[in-house]
C-alpha cells in the first residue's frame, strides 16, 4: 500500500520520541523485521535530533518537518529544518566529526549504515534536508 504523510513539529527533544514511534509504526506496517525497525528508529532519531540540536540550537519555536512515503517495497523519510545549515557536508558526515565537543559525531555514520540510501542537502543559513530510504530485504538489490 502506498502512503504519504507530512508531520511538522516543534523543535523540542520530546518530539524525537514521537518521530521515532511514527517511523516504527510505518515500518511495522510494511513488515520490516524487528531488528530493522530498530535501525529505522535510530536513523530517524539521529536525523531529527540533529535538526533540533544543531540546526536550531534547541530553539523550541522552530519547526522540523518529516515527510514520509511508504510503498510495498520501501520507506522514505525526509527530515528537514530551516536552521543554520551545514557548511561542509562531506566533513560533517565523517565518523567522529562533531561541531560539539560533547557529542560523538556518529549520527550520520548510523544513518548511513542503518539505511539503504542517505542523501543530505544543506545550505548555510537556509537549512538542511536529510533523506533516508530503507528497502524491505526482498526488494533490496546490491545497488542499494
Ligand atoms: N540538521 C543539521 N543542521 C546543522 N548542522 C548539522 C545538522 N545535522 C548535522 N549537522 C552537523 O554535522 C555534524 C555531525 O553530525 P552527527 O554525525 O550527527 O554528529 P553529532 O550530532 O554527534 O555532532 C554535527 O556536529 C553538526 O555540525
Ligand atoms: Mg547527531
From TrEMBL:
Histidine kinase/HSP90-like ATPase domain boundaries: 35-138
Pfam families, alphabetized: HATPase_c_2
Keyword Kinase: yes
Name under which the protein is recorded: Anti-sigma F factor
Substrates-to-products reaction catalysed: L-threonyl-[protein] + ATP = O-phospho-L-threonyl-[protein] + ADP + H(+); L-seryl-[protein] + ATP = O-phospho-L-seryl-[protein] + ADP + H(+)
UniProt enzyme class: transferase
Coiled coil: none
SMART domains: HATPase_c
Top-level taxon of the source organism: Bacteria
EC number(s) stated in the UniProt entry for this protein: 2.7.11.1
Source organism (scientific name): Syntrophobotulus glycolicus (strain DSM 8271 / FlGlyR)
Keywords attached to this entry: ATP-binding, Kinase, Nucleotide-binding, Serine/threonine-protein kinase, Sporulation, Transferase
Amino acid at each position: 500500500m502506498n502512503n504519504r504523510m507530512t508531520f511538522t513539529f516543534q523543535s523540542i527533544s520530546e518530539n524525537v520520541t514521537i518521530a521515532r514511534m511514527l517511523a516504527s509504526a510505518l515500518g511495522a506496517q510494511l513488515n520490516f523485521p524487528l531488528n530493522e525497525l530498530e535501525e529505522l528508529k535510530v536513523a530517524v532519531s539521529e536525523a531529527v535530533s540533529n535538526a533540533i540540536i544543531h540546526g536550531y540550537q534547541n530553539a523550541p519555536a522552530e519547526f522540523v518537518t518529516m515527510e514520509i512515503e511508504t510503498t510495498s517495497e520501501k520507506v522514505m523519510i525526509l527530515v528537514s529544518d530551516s536552521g543554520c545549515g551545514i557548511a561542509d557536508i562531506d566533513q560533517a558526515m565523517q565518523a567522529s566529526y562533531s561541531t560539539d565537543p560533547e557529542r560523538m559525531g556518529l549520527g550520520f555514520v548510523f544513518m548511513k549504515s542503518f539505511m539503504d540510501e542517505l542523501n543530505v542537502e544543506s545550505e548555510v543559513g537556509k537549512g538542511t534536508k536529510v533523506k533516508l530510504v530503507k528497502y524491505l530485504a526482498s526488494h533490496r538489490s546490491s545497488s542499494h
